[in-house]
Specification:
By secondary structure, the protein is an alpha+beta fold. It has a single domain, classed as Jelly Rolls, CATH 2.60.120. It contains five helices and eight strands, in the order H-H-E-E-E-E-E-E-H-E-E-H-H. The strands form two sheets. A four-stranded antiparallel sheet has the order 1-8-3-6. Strands 2-7-4-5 form a four-stranded antiparallel sheet, with no helix packed on it. Strand 4 and strand 5 form a beta hairpin. Helix 4 packs across helix 5. The longest helix is centred in the last third of the chain and has 21 residues.
Length: 134
Amino acid sequence: MYKQLSSHPLFMILANDSIKKLSKIARKVSYQNGDFLVKENEPNEHLFLLLDGAVRIENSVGELIAMLQKGAIVGEVSISGLSLPIANVIAMDDVKAVVFPMNVITELSNQEPSFAEALHRLGMERVMGRLLDS
């Protein structure tokens, strides 16, 4: 898992010790078609890195907002503290993801400001994109 994290744009800015810590704490989880990774307006306690498969991002009435695939980060809006999730994230097929607990991501954000900034920027891009599409 270290190799996957150290080569991902969001995580490569972390110190090697932080990446090693994340590698040990993170867990791989599988989802089936139709499973929710994140539900709109419900608390989310995880950040996800998609390893395989694809997810659809949709609003509460089922309108497609986006589709994300391998390498995408999901859950960044709520993890970055911007708001509760602004959309549903649903597996489109068999999805494998690395799941990071919120408390670990928060701790790393406090220790490494560049990581916090990158996570916040990613969340803001998603929120602004959603607002502009409305």
